[in-house]
Amino acid sequence: MTSATLLPRLRSDLAAARFSVPGLTGLWGIEADAALQRNQRVPARRALAALATTLGRKEPAATLAGLFLLGDPVSRADLDAALPELGATGAEQLGLVVADGEGGVRPIVDLRPYNFIDAHGAGSWWIVSDLGELVLGHPLGETHVLGIGGASRTLSGLMMPTRAGRALDIGTGCGIQALHASRHAEYVVATDISVRALELAALNAELNDIDNIEFRLGSLFEPVAGERFDHIISNPPFVITPRAEGVPNYEYRDGGMVGDALVEAVVRGAADHLTPGGVAQLLGNWEYPGDTDAFERVEGWLTPVAGPAAPSSTLDAWIIEREVQSPGEYAETWIRDGGTRPGPDFDRLYDAWLNDFDARGVRRVGFGYLLLRRPVDSSAPPTLRRLERMPDALGHNPAGLGAHLAECLTAHDWQAQTDDARLLRTQLTVASDVTEERHYWPGQQDPTVMTLRQGSGFGRAVPLDTALAGLVGACDGDLAVGAIIGALAQLLEADEVALSAELLPKVRDLLVDGFLTVPEPV
């Protein structure tokens, strides 16, 4: 039988077994769930064993969870019962399990449920990837296909849900970003250098009945030469790995280039593969060489270089640095990520990493998110060039950040095209998630500190003075900004022109950050 015949059976069996995120939590409980997040499976095993004893039988979801998440072999009879339409033989034909030599089967892939919420609503899929270190019991192989991790969840949360004709996922891995993009794009092209990754990604698309994704083999933009896209998404292999003998080169995270050159290549290549107004979103690392600020280097990637192969336009950019690590911290993070534990091998790899950073004078490494946009008019200068550091950039509602980014871009464009005279005539409203916080010295009537706080988005906090607090407090959609400033000028006995000059730039910032909104249509 072909996968076209077998996968619908698997899909039906998984649904019937309630092999879902809430279903598994119900089987082994919240504490075992948390332990699995820490790469510890004993609590889950104990919970499943206790459940089987209590019920006097194995639940289908428990059999599947023990097999595919915990890596425990099961009998063919138990798997036939858990997958009645597909059966153990069908699971073997799909490459999910293999005979263990003792009459049972063991997993050769990780298969798990995945839940999410985006602008289109709640959704759930089943995702197949290679077995992790927990089940393997040894460091990962260099061709390992990663499942859903923290970075992939971060990027999917940041993904703007704006409708697009064509989307591109560079370095698709198990295909999770392509699957997310398929919810807002009519057609998705997903690329990877790994044949194995493309096979698993295609399996995931078919398993979840998603048919608008095309998979192509190749590096970076090579498989889409000459093509343009409305939305480019990439969780690229951005890890800065020493190009030295004896250092593992994992396909899922190491791009084979020196330092942060791979992220630079994606940034520079985006301009010639975006449609006018098209957006690219990616994760990345960047180096701090010597006394140079990394943002100086990253900003240089946004400017076309001379020559016939130069990008055709300078990009709009919004770049957020979420974290900065020392070379030692960075090395430890990624050596552990590959499954190497403290010991001689760990020390050898640690030396290789530090030698590589020392040779290039790197003193720190930054991690963050990049949002790039090709201007609609390629001859016009970019209007958006925002590079900021936000250590708690995902501390509030990661699932809604994509929609928030889209709203912020729309607000940025509106205010960039709006002169001060029109802004003064505009009636603004305070966003529904915004609150004002005031602190008083005991016994005093006037506040000593006033802060405007954002409940969603990036959870920003903006300090307020009396004038700005008064303006924001009066933005209820009835009075124009100019009328509010005029009333404040009288109340504060201030010059109205000077007060306007002071407040209007702050109003623009509050619009771009989502604190204030413009009534529809913008």
UniProtKB/TrEMBL annotation:
Keywords: Methyltransferase, S-adenosyl-L-methionine, Transferase. It holds the Pfam family DUF7059. Residues 152-285 form the Methyltransferase small domain. Residues 16-106 form the DUF7059 domain. GO terms for biological process: methylation. GO terms for molecular function: N-methyltransferase activity; nucleic acid binding; protein methyltransferase activity; S-adenosylmethionine-dependent methyltransferase activity. It comes from the Bacteria. The keyword S-adenosyl-L-methionine applies. One of its GO terms (cellular component) is eRF1 methyltransferase complex. Residues 410-516 form the DUF7782 domain. Belongs to the eukaryotic/archaeal PrmC-related family. This is Methyltransferase domain-containing protein.
